[in-house]
Write a structure and sequence with these properties.
Blueprint: E1 16-19, E2 29-33, E3 38-45, E4 48-53, H1 64-73, E5 78-85, E6 87-88, E7 91-92, H2 94-99, H3 105-114, E8 118-127, E9 130-131, H4 137-147, E10 155-157, H5 164-173, E11 182-186, E12 196-201, E13 205-216, E14 225-233, E15 239-245, H6 250-264, H7 274-279, E16 302-303, E17 309-314, E18 317-318, E19 321-322, E20 327-331, H8 353-357
Length: 363
């Protein structure tokens, strides 16, 4: 795109992070909260603005209010890396972000008024027409703070600290605002598109869940198990579908077919999700339900008798469900399905987002 008006032609692969078990200590890192939103790279030049998603697609039509605000308030000829979020009194709302991915412009416009979005910048790739990607992270951070010093909402600069104790405190406290962990960036590193050049440290917890069903693997129906459907009981003993666990080797997927076979016999008799298997109503949270984000994937499922319990590792909850796919740890043959309740989950104290935004100055 040689005719691009932007100082760096889009699209750009964003720099990524790899998972670490603990926050690294030392003088060589800048620490930031990990935002639970839509990754976005924003290009601004003259009368043009382009918002690019992590997968290199345009996002502008889904966030018209943000497009207009960025065009009006960002300095000319700059490129910013950051996150689109929707902040509410209860913290970040990822579900509200997903609702924006709607084909009807009228629906998007209505949601833009009801739940306006914000952009949290955490890196500066270009300023005044100059490509800053070869600069060190610490230099780009300083330039970012200077560039957006007077921008104002809905544009924000992410908080940053050089103090590992502060970052450790953030990991515990900021989760209550809906943030997703902590990012550690090597202070001397350049911007490396598509490379996992940063570290992300996320919360890790375990829960005992009912295994109430499974889905076949896309490459082996009747021969490979794709994922296990997980459930937890609420206070009225209603079994909720809370997510899946799917990170198995191919050998394990084959073994699971044989291991789960006895539990498939007469599984729907008295199954708490039987009506879901019968109706398959679209757009719901049921295991077989389609949604606008499932993109036509086969979400059919096989019921299992409510007898098995497994322990899974998860990072955090989104409402009543696991935010991401849980990681299978082990079978818990010593636990009864009735023991798998929401009560076992750690409750996170709410934390005001204003305190997060107000912590943006480095320490």
């Amino acid at each position: 795109m040689s005719s691009s008006p932007f100082p760096i032609p889009p699209p750009i692969e964003p720099m990524l992070a790899k998972l670490a078990e603990a926050i690294p200590d030392g003088d060589g890192y800048l620490y930031e909260p990990k935002w639970d939103g839509f990754r976005a790279i924003v290009f601004r030049a003259g009368a043009e603005l382009f918002i690019q998603s992590r997968d290199l697609r345009p996002l502008d039509r889904y966030f018209p209010e943000l497009h207009e605000a960025l065009l009006a308030r960002l300095p000319d000829r700059c490129v910013l890396d950051g996150e689109i979020v929707i902040a509410t009194s209860g913290g970040l709302d990822f579900d509200a972000l997903q609702l924006r991915l709607h084909p009807a412009a009228s629906r998007v416009a209505m949601l833009a008024k009801q739940t306006p979005s914000a952009f949290v910048a955490f890196d500066l790739l270009a300023a005044d027409g100059e490509d800053l990607r070869p600069l060190q992270q610490r230099e780009r951070r300083a330039r970012l703070e200077a560039l957006l010093a007077t921008s104002g909402p809905p544009i924000h600069v992410t908080p940053m600290t050089r103090d590992v104790a502060t970052a450790t405190d953030w990991l515990a406290r900021f989760e209550g605002a809906g943030l997703d962990g902590v990012i550690a960036k090597p202070a001397g590193a350049t911007y490396q598109p598509g490379k996992r050049a940063m570290l992300k440290i996320k919360h890790s917890r375990t829960a005992d869940c009912v295994v109430a069903g499974f889905r076949w693997h896309k490459n082996g129906r009747d021969t490979l198990v794709g994922s296990l459907l997980l459930g937890l009981y609420d206070g009225t003993h209603r079994l909720h579908h809370v997510g899946v666990t799917s990170a198995f080797t191919m050998d394990t997927r084959r073994q699971l077919v044989e291991e789960l076979a006895p539990l498939r016999q007469n599984a729907l008799e008295g199954h708490p999700w039987r009506e879901w298997a019968d109706t398959g109503e679209p757009g719901t949270r049921m295991p077989g339900g389609q949604s606008r984000w499932s993109a036509g994937k086969d979400l059919s499922w096989e019921a299992l008798r409510i007898e098995r319990v497994c322990e899974v590792r998860y990072d955090h909850m989104q409402g009543t469900r696991f935010r991401h796919a849980a990681v299978f740890e082990r079978w818990r043959r010593d636990r009864a399905p009735d023991d798998c309740t929401y009560d076992q989950l750690e409750v996170t104290t709410p934390y005001e987002l204003e305190k997060v935004f107000g912590a943006g100055h480095p320490r």
